[in-house]
Design brief:
Layout lengths: L26 E2 L9 E5 L5 E5 L8 E2 L5 E2 L5 E11 L7 E13 L14 E9 L9 E5 H4 L8 E4 L3 E4 L8 E5 L3 E6 L5 E7 L2 E2 L6 E4 L2 E3 L2 E8 L2 E4 L6 E4 L3 E8 L2 E9 L6 E9 L3 E12 L5 E7 L2 E6 L10 E5 L6 E6 L4 E7 L5 E6 L3 E7 L3 E3 L4 E11 L1 E4 L3 E10 L2 E10 L6 E4 L2 E4 L1 E6 L2 E10 L8 E4 L2 E4 L1 E2 L1
């Protein structure tokens, strides 16, 4: 068995800026039990990073940074067959060309695509001389290095509208929908997770994973969770069968005790994505459903707005360092079934609407992202009964919010004119109005439940300055803010 040496970070050569990773020494437990491997690389600041990618129950990382951010998720464990030197040793480092055989996954959370195990490839690396791998050692092979063995391109399913492609670098294809307004991707092989949502070039969700510690990888996106008797937990490990048309994907899967149907629909002429999930009990069961959205964060400039019964709660995202893995907040007295996510850095917002009022919504902030986690009332189901949940996602560049309404607005070019589009969620049942330079524009109601109402506005206008407009709801006037 290959040995793993104690490794220390080099001091970065920086100009007073905070390095990407802390300067404390990174050390590993000297006794290695079972299959262990480390992957070493040098970044632009000349810091030696060591990333553990095949953990055991005992922690191997002591002190230092708890998480490592990797641009591409998939990693394979490779057994070294041959090693060639490609350059002279410089400052204690050596350039090597390594031939390795894919031995399996490098992390249990990320399974390898079919056909990779047992195949061989060459990789080029720079190692510290005293840590150079030898024949029989194991190394971690990155997604970029594996790309020569993975042949996923962009396969059209509905020309110009629906594609099959690997958007999150896990080696498996996702289904991508595109319109003039939105682009989204769904992962049938990973619990029908919504992996990506893009609007005006802005990606809202964490899409390529973050290795938070030796035991956990954040896969990102929007995924489903449940607790049902002795069963339950994350559903991201399920594999769904699916059918696709030009605007919707229908997915079917099974968890213990439930048949699950999921439908994801992308509107073609309005920036709206809907996700509907249904649980049909195969026997008497208790279902406690909640969902989790991992949203990209910009420290100090990403904001989440929670409409609570005692007023609007405004939480600004801040980077969490070392000893604070995450900051948690829970809102249990929601006044509306939704939240509003603002990105002040890129000037976009995302209205997130649920089909029913959550019992609570949790917020947690991590190193490069934060999560929104609505939890719904427990459902007691008899055999054959169905519990259904709906999620709506609407982006925009303007917003309005209070404890009693949430709204997003934007303009789209159409036949040489601007088309004003917006969506509102209100407690007030009377139709809201938009006062635009003295002209009142009424909304159309498109749904609602339990005292909550959904409104849609779609009107041609030449007006661009919404910050001078007023939103009239239940006799109250609210401003509209640009981002």
């Amino acid at each position: 068995m290959a040995s793993i040496h104690e490794v220390e970070e080099m001091n970065p050569e920086t100009s007073g800026e905070k390095p990407a990773y802390p300067q404390e020494a990174v050390r590993f437990h000297p006794e290695i039990v079972g299959r262990k491997v480390i992957h070493r690389r040098i970044d632009e600041q000349h810091i030696l990073h060591v990333i553990i990618l095949h953990p055991t129950s005992s922690p191997l990382l002591h002190g230092g940074h708890r998480g490592f951010i990797l641009d591409n998720m998939l990693r394979a464990l490779g057994k070294v067959i041959e090693v060639e030197e490609t350059g002279e040793e410089k400052a204690g480092f050596i350039s090597l060309r390594i031939r390795a055989r894919v031995a399996g996954e490098a992390h249990p959370a990320l399974k390898l695509p079919p056909g990779l195990k047992g195949r061989c490839l060459w990789v080029e690396r720079v190692y510290r001389e005293r840590l150079r791998p030898r024949k029989g050692d194991f190394i971690v092979i990155t997604y970029d290095e594996l790309s020569s063995l993975i042949k996923w391109g962009r396969e059209p399913l509905v020309p110009g509208k629906v594609f099959r492609e690997d958007v999150d670098a896990d080696g498996f294809p996702e289904i991508t929908f595109e319109t003039d307004l939105l682009r989204c991707s769904v992962a049938p092989h990973r619990g029908a997770t919504l992996r990506s949502l893009k609007y005006r070039g802005k990606e809202f969700f964490v899409g390529k994973g973050e290795y938070l510690n030796v035991d956990y990888i954040e896969l990102g996106g929007v995924d489903d969770h449940m607790e049902s008797g002795k069963y339950g937990g994350a559903l991201s490990s399920l594999k769904y069968e699916y059918e696709v048309d030009e605007g919707e994907i229908q997915l079917t899967g099974r968890a213990k005790g439930f048949e699950i149907e999921k439908a994801i629909n992308l509107e073609r002429d309005f920036p709206l994505l809907t996700v509907k999930i249904s649980f049909k009990a195969r026997k008497k069961a208790e279902l406690n459903y909640w969902m989790r959205m991992a949203v990209r964060g910009v420290p100090g400039r990403s904001v989440i707005l929670f409409p609570a019964r005692d007023g609007l709660v405004r939480e600004r995202y801040h980077f969490q360092y070392l000893d604070s893995l995450f900051r948690a907040l829970e809102i249990s007295r929601m006044s509306l079934p939704g939240v509003l996510v603002l990105d002040e850095a890129e000037g976009v917002s995302l209205l997130v609407v649920f089909s029913q009022l959550p019992e609570s919504v949790a917020y947690r902030s991590y190193g490069t992202f934060f999560t929104v986690e609505p939890a719904f009332e427990r459902a007691s189901l008899k055999k054959g009964e169905v519990s259904q949940y709906l999620l709506g996602l609407i982006p925009g560049t303007f917003y309005s919010a209070s404890g009693f309404h949430l709204g997003v607005f934007d303009f789209q070019k159409e036949k040489g004119r601007n088309r004003l589009i917006s969506s509102l969620v209100t407690v007030e049942r009377r139709a809201p109005e938009l006062l635009l330079r003295g002209k009142r524009i009424s909304y159309s109601r498109i749904g609602g439940f339990d005292g909550t109402h959904f409104w849609k506005l779609d009107v041609g206008t030449e007006e661009r300055d919404l910050e001078e407009a007023s939103l009239l709801i239940g006799g109250e006037s609210y401003g509209i803010d640009g981002l």
